[in-house]
Amino acid sequence: MAELGADAIKVMKTQDLKYLRAVVSRDKKKEERLRSSLHFDHTQEYGEEVQRKNKKTLFVDGTEKDAKKVLRQNGGVLWDEEEEEGKGEEDDNDFDNDSSLNPQHESAVVSEPTSDDEYDLDISTLRAANKKPKTEAELKKINRRQTKIKKRIEKNRLKSYAELRNREERRQKVEVALAYMETEKNMNAKGAKRKVVEGDSTKPPVYKWRRKRAK
Description:
The chain has 215 residues and is mainly α. It has helices at 6-53, 64-73, 81-84, 89-97, 123-129, 136-187, and strands at 56-59, 107-110, 193-197, 206-209.
């Protein structure tokens, strides 16, 4: 079997360098996508938590029309029983006269309207207000389903974090190999050189070439 010449070996090493650079670039892009995905999940959960905290209770008869009417009467601000306490008898009389705010009516939880979508109501919640109260068995079933979903989401998130760590470790190893190969390539350059920094398992040695005086 014929041995490869110096030029052929040089070409192969050059191809290896290009391949390793492509691997590093590809892994960096995948890592960035994973980080963005994990950051988006965290931001989405935070937003949902804030949204839950910003929800108030509005007593309506279960129809979208009456709910919008109440919102308009209150200047787009949802009525809240705790906020109404201590405002005086005048507010109490207004409350008694307005049948749409009577606590005897069914309650529905809706989100506060935003400037972009004024008086936008949670129709699914309003419809749910018309349904019969759920039994204890149904509530337990819903809780079990929600717990199962949360566990699956957490499992997928941990899996994504593990994949991100593995990709980072792999990329770092490839970068070390790439640095060694580039150093080896530079060693073929002409001129006197000396080692200025010793190498180790994480980085190659550093050489310094003597500068030639231009003639």
